[in-house]
Known about the structure:
Blueprint: E1 2-8, H1 21-28, E2 32-38, E3 52-53, E4 63-64, H2 66-77, E5 83-93, H3 96-102, E6 107-112, H4 120-125, E7 129-132, H5 142-153, E8 186-187, E9 190-191, H6 201-219, H7 221-230
Parallel strand pairs: 1-2, 1-6, 5-6, 5-7
Antiparallel strand pairs: 3-4, 8-9
Helix pairs in contact: 3-5, 6-7
Bound molecules: adenine (ADE).
Amino acid sequence: MLRxxxxxxxxxxxxxxxxxxxxxxxxxxxxxxxxxxxxxxxSSDKKRHSVDDRPFGGGPGMVLSPQPLFDAVKKIKGxxxxxxxxxxxxxxxxxxxxAKRLTKHKNxxxxxxxxxxxxxxxxxxxxxxxxxxxxxxxxxxxxxxxxMVDAITRLIPGVLGKDESLVNESxxxxxxxxxxxxxxxxxxxxxxxxVLLSGHHQQIAQWRRAQAVQHTQKIRPDLAGKxxxxxxx
Length: 233
Ligand code: ADE
């Protein structure tokens, strides 16, 4: 079982996403355990529960203080081994290969930032890895944390049903997935490519691969480059 601990200023926002569909099933199957922690509960300021302060040296916004984050991580970790992740636009781009690697851990603690960021001493002393989910700035780390939990959870063996295969999906072999069709074969004159109706499994597989390569070269030439290198072409 992989345990996620998420440290956030907005615990309520996780309710919907983690109680539906695949994540709900993964929890029911005891493949994951997800605990949400309110950062304010760890503030030593028992009156105002403050968690942030103005930046030294001046500048706009507020910075999350070290005390609540150090205490939260220490308490949550206990004596267990856990990897501490901070989600931030200045992190390493999160990808499918990171998601796969992180399925191997027993406990992932994810810190969601807010305001102008978190005190650098937290990053230096308690954070193990920093991830960005893309080259844009969100209002906080909650959505990136959800993205990571979702991407990691579905890759844990036994989470997807046998109808939901991982083999042909996007990013496997650095290719984006090609087109899919379902019935009817003729929708108001819009026809499905005949090869898919042919019953020739080999031809279908070849056609699908060609479509995936074409689509990847057009939309993500950077991935298409990686795909060629893999095969020494
Ligand atoms: N926090 C705000 N924007 C983010 C992003 N793009 N990735 C990760 N964390 C973030």
